[in-house]
From TrEMBL:
Transmembrane segments: none annotated. The keyword Hydrolase applies. It comes from Subtercola frigoramans. This is Peptidoglycan/xylan/chitin deacetylase (PgdA/CDA1 family). Keywords: Hydrolase, Metal-binding, Signal. Residues 87-277 form the NodB homology domain. SUPFAM superfamilies: Glycoside hydrolase/deacetylase. InterPro entries: Glyco_hydro/deAcase_b/a-brl (IPR011330), NODB_dom (IPR002509), Polysacc_deacetylase_ArnD (IPR050248). Residues 1-22 form the signal peptide.
Amino acid sequence: MQRRLFLILAAAGVVATATACASTPQTTPVAASTTPRAPVTPTPTVTALPTPMHTPTPTPTPAPTPPALAKVAIPEGVMTDLPGDGKLLAWTVDDGSNSEVIRKYVEFAKRTGTRLTFFVNGSYPGWTENAELLRPLVKTGQIQLGNHTWDHADLTSLSDDGVIEELQKNHDFLMSTYGVDARPFYRPPYGYRNHHTDHLAAEIGYTTPVMWYGSLSDSGLITDQQVVDFATQWFLPQHIVIGHLNFLPVTEVFPQLENLITSRGLQTVTLNDVFNH
């Protein structure tokens, strides 16, 4: 009896063991396939480009129209101011020892329409360096060029031939570089002149020495506030005011000078705007 029971229990154990083996998951790793897989090429993401905006072509600023003035005859002798009782200002600028100052003056004139008369010393390289920038304004008459001698010589200290050479050499430079005949206007350097030098200049067509009635006093280095102060004193109706193309402070206060002219109701003019010749 006991032996029979043992056999029954043993048989049950074998069945249980087989059942347990059947329910246990297979843990033996499966070898990876050695067949290479074709690479997958990702589909590129296409980003739509923005539609370009149409940028209109800028309209060039037209050259300022010369003022409609009834021109008058050039007075005999030395000129120091403009005739009549108008609101005209002749802003004249001399020398040109600093090429950057010449450039900034021309850019200021181009930007604002201010009319200027430059009295040129052709020996300074800035007049050649800035010729391309300056020529269009000379051509329209917005900037007038006058003769200030070749290298800023004191005419009263020269021989007769020396006086004529200084003016003639500068005249030839203005003709060849800008196509300008500056006669009859010239400005004697330092304002040094006398009847004899006037007569010599007139022999070659420079009959009108142009002096001034007020100065920015910037032939030497002064502060920008001093420039404004002198302009406040001298930017007045019918004045010929002298400035210089030598030092930078004046270029720092162009907006103040322009505002001064506007607030006083002044109209800038060249000498050619005013006088028949």
